[in-house]
Amino acid sequence: MQSRTHTCGELRLSDAGKKVKLCGWLENFREVGAELGFVVIRDFYGTTQVVAENADMVKQFKAITKESTISVEGVVRERSSKNPKQETGDIEVVPEKVEILGRCRYSELPFEINHSREADETARLKYRYLDLRNPEVKKNIILRSQIIAALRSSMLDHGFMEITTPILTASSPEGARDYLVPARKHPGKFYALPQAPQQFKQLLMVSGIDRYFQIAPCFRDEDARGDRSPGEFYQLDMEMAFASQEDVFAVIEDVLPPIFAKYGTYNRASGAPFVRIPYLEALEKYGTDKPDLRIDLTVSDVTDLLRTPDFAPFADGVIKAVVISDFHESRKFIDKTMEAVEVQSGNKGYWFRVDENGELVGGISKFVAPKKDEVVKALSLESNTLVVLSAGDKGAAVKTAGVLVKTFGAAVPGHMDKEQYAFCWIVDFPMYEIGEESGELEFCHNPFSMPSGGLDILLKAEKGEVDPLTIMADQYDLVVNGVELSSGAVRNHDPEIMIKAFELVRLGEEDVKKKFPAMYNAFCYGAPPHAGIAPGVDRMIMLLAAEESIREIIPFPMNKNAQDVMMGAPSFVTDKQLEELHIKTTATEEE
Question: What is the pTM of this model?
Fold first, then answer.
């Protein structure tokens, strides 16, 4: 411990009578009189009460500003008034010597340390080093360290080798915007920070590495969201040679549940095997490809049942319904929740109720009433049931239905078993889709996923024997509590299959060679079948800590505008620096 004998969270009643030296921050000083004062000293491990019992010592502590670092030498004794809420609450230290190690030169702090989470976020980010002194903030960073250590240990136990891949790489033509880094020795050329180690980890499989992983930093120039930090994030990146989807599932289902059960706010987590839901079924049943299985509500298609020219929104398009049983909330509750649905989905929802007498009431009940018996039978409606609906083109109706499930499921008592981690796999993603802007066939998700059926199914699509939109990919998403934790796939490792997959979207062999030269060339030297996945570490920790914002679990996060207000990044650089990099910029510092 060098300059200290104990930490501020260590001393117990058994230490009474010992002479000790503590070091930490002066959290608080309460002067009771000229000859009595109570001091709280805090370090990484906890807090200890120090009692000044003479005028000289009271004077010394009174002259020290809060949050100064100090050392205190003294004798431990039993407290007469114990504090059961404090781990060191049975003892106190009577000081013989106090020394200032690092004075806080400000009498006013930007915020009160122990209530920093109540402060303005900009102030918290600017003075993040003070924010992190708050034990409630710091515990998330400690949790992050513990979880990453547990993930690393488990992956090593499963036979994976940790390998770090390059940070400076080539710009990718796919995905989000790259962060570009000018190459001083190569005028006009740029490196890019990796959006993910995707190509490198596949090249490792070609290299003969059997099981790879790393806690990988990834960089994407994206806008912030509650569950996504702009700029930089981390993922548990893994890849397996000679592996199938089942092999990947087996590893993840063995690695994650114990970590979620041990470190999570909730101590229940799905065990193996996780529920598997085909992508198209997820959209139909839950209105989303990220279902929250803690909610017991599902979606029904009632288009044929409720189509009516008498109510314009139901005159054409698609109609979806969500049945909420045992409903006893007020009309005000329904209206407020429906408003929240419209804000989230951008579309209006509709509703009617079955009252205690079995009658259809409220909302659009008059338009449904002519088909009452059919509706009650088809949806198995009972008394005290609320039916919420969406309508419009298929995409809008499905999206709104998903928001209805999520919003009412969380708001109506009895329909959400919140205190658990409910995992599921979304499988059988379509390989292709019709692009909204182009109106032509495009890849639906990852173009390097292996099509289910391999080369044979692609040849049939080329000949017109199979509709390309019916081709599925060996791709999968891992979802927990309605949050997409990861995407993964069995990779397309065969150059012949790869070229044929791209030809269906009007890209030839030369296009593939030009855009992905390293992977294409490597695969031509004999690539093993391989598969992988990359769960997001930041999202995982956010879920485990039960935080609403991902910034709460990152040591030094950026703000929503991708700015580091503490360090002043991004910032202007000197003309000399730009000149060395052969760069001219149209922006000026005055702007």
Answer: 0.91
